Amino acid sequence: MKRFALFHGKRHPREMGAEEVSAFRSYLAVERSVSASTQNQAKSALLFLYKEVLQQDLPWLQKVVAAKVARRLPVVLTQHEVRA
């Protein structure tokens, strides 16, 4: 939440909306190059902030799309590669 507020010039979250949340998540993905799980954690933290702390029900925040986790294929080595 601290980074969210600092990113937007220390504005209070009640003054911000969907556009600011989207800009922050884009910043995390593009400029900070964080993983999808970190982006999703930020989304969950924002949901908690608005819903539980500020007690604001914001339907647009539920519609923010979660980042897709990259699938990693297992690396399979040949017997020769294992011996090397």
From TrEMBL:
<dbReference type="InterPro" id="IPR044068">
    <property type="entry name" value="CB"/>
</dbReference>
<keyword id="KW-0238">DNA-binding</keyword>
<feature type="domain" description="Core-binding (CB)">
    <location>
        <begin position="1"/>
        <end position="54"/>
    </location>
</feature>
<protein>
    <submittedName>
        <fullName>Phage integrase N-terminal SAM-like domain-containing protein</fullName>
    </submittedName>
</protein>
<keyword id="KW-0229">DNA integration</keyword>
<dbReference type="Pfam" id="PF13495">
    <property type="entry name" value="Phage_int_SAM_4"/>
</dbReference>
<dbReference type="InterPro" id="IPR010998">
    <property type="entry name" value="Integrase_recombinase_N"/>
</dbReference>
<dbReference type="InterPro" id="IPR004107">
    <property type="entry name" value="Integrase_SAM-like_N"/>
</dbReference>
